Structure formats: C-alpha cells, structure tokens
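Appendix B. Worked example

We walk through a single record from start to finish. Start with the input: the chain for Quinone oxidoreductase, Devosia neptuniae, length 323.
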Amino acid sequence: MSQAIVVHQHGGPEVLSYEEWPLAAPGPGQVAVRQTAVGLNFIDTYQRSGLYPQKLPFVAGSEGAGVVTALGEGVTEFSVGDRVAYQGQIGAYATERLLNAERIVAIPDGVDDQVAAAIMLKGLTAYYLLFQTWPLAAGETILWHAAAGGVGQIATQWAKSLGARVIGTAGSAEKVALALENGCDAVINYTTEDFAERVKELTGGRGVDVVYDGVGKSTFDKSLDCLRPRGLMVSFGNASGVVSIPDLTVLSRKGSLYVTRPTTAHYVAERSALVVAAGALFEAVASGKIKVAVNQTFALKDAAEAHRALEGRQTTGSVVLLP
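Next comes the structure step. The output line below is what the pipeline stores for this chain.
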C-alpha cells in the first residue's frame, strides 16, 4: 500500500484526503518508484476543482521524482536504484507509485531530487514556450506575466540567457524584487500600475514581440495591447480564470495579432521530444543558466494547505511536497 492524497469529489482544497492507496506490481512497460519529492503546480488545482475533470476517485498531482524500486516486463532503459523524474502522469501525490517507463527520464548527477521534482513540468513548459512555440531570438522583447512564479522564474532566466529583453509583471513589491533577481530587465507591479501603458513606455510605443501569460482571464485583454503588430499572445494557463474571445476581429483591430493556447502534453508527446527537452532543461540547470528556488516545502499530508497557499498567491518560485 501507498500513502496518497486522494480526490473523491471535485471541489476546493478540503477534498484532498490523505489515505492508503493500493499499489500493484509494475506491469509491462512500467516501473515502481519510491517518491522522494513531488512538484506542486496550478494544473493540480484545476484537476482537483473539476476545471480539468478527472475520473473519480484519483490520486492528485502529475510531477515528481524518486528512486526506481521494481521493473515491469520489457523495461530495459532503467535499473532498480536509478533516480528518475517525470511530469504528466497523474497520481504523483503518493509515497510510492507506478509509472510508464516511456514517460520518465533519468536525473543527472548534480541535480537533486527536490529540484528535479520542481522543474519537470515548469521547466519543460518554459522550454517549449521559448524554443518551440516562439523560437526566441537575441534582441527580441517579451512580456512574462507572474514572473516571480515557478514557471516565470525559470523562463525569465532562460530567456535572458538567450539574449532577450525580458519585461515581467508581479503582484507585490517583494515579488517585483524577486523577479528582478531572476533576470528581468524591468518588472511591473500590476497592482499599482497599468501594465499595458507601462509596457508601451518601456518599448517606446512599439510593444513586445511575445506575451507569455499563465494568469488567464484577468490579464488577457490588456496583454493584447502590449503586443507589436503581428506579435504573438501565448496563453498557457488559467490562474485567474478561463480566457474566451467572443469576437476574433479584436485581433485584427489590435495589429493582426496571433494567439495560441499550447500545452506541454502536445509538445512532448513523443519520447524523443521528451528526452531532448529534459536534456536541455537539466543542462541549463547544471550550467547555471537557470537557478531553481524551491522556496516552500510541505509534508505530503498537508497538500490541502499547499493548494490554499498556491491559489492565494502566497507562494514564490517552486513548491515541493515531501512524502
């Protein structure tokens, strides 16, 4: 048996229940893993609330790191004792679990388990956004919302290492300072400034090449005003609510803009893509291009408290649950 955080009905953090959960032997193509760290992400709250519905009951979470304890038939790439990490396999909030071996990667020496658990989803998200959704070039200017958040801190450092000019937004003086420490050239406090007006000032009226927005509903409309003509609006999260565009002609009126709503699953659907992306991520961490801040940890049994902190914008950087 494993100890796990189980969701029996969709709802608020109170529906997260710490209890025993059955653990079978690994089947063909699977590995059993004793987890050492579990990443906390906004998608976990979407699945818990029912915004991204899951078949009930289910074990929450989709990102973690640990040690392989058993191999299923046909698994040859990994061995018992290997340190591995993953994202995108729901059931992470547990002390032990089964994983599809095709969707895990080895953790290299020099990257500890907490960092690995904290960066798989956030870091792979940053990778595809910066290298694939819009292959960011030196000299380009971007706006990154929630720059002090988990994805934001990784992505702004990475973007700066590519030679981009990075403008961030944050919701407090403390978070503004943190975003500046993590590579932003300028950070706008959206609680005290109109970020669209400030972006135009910072860019001499031109606007930015790309807006990366994981916040969603509350920032979307004004983000369109931050873009240069034919710029790209990348909406990759819904922290403040789901975005809708009832009138597509707004994109033409604001400069023949492009909009996309990507997800990690589609960018790393093939194992080869996953390995390349994870390799680039781990290299960026090992080389110092990205410094990962695990600023908060919670015991696994306190997952509800962690969800409240995340949804209450009380966290910065990455948050890890410890089984």
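Two observations about the output. The chain has a mean pLDDT of 95. The domain at 138-261 is CATH 3.40.50.720 (Rossmann fold).
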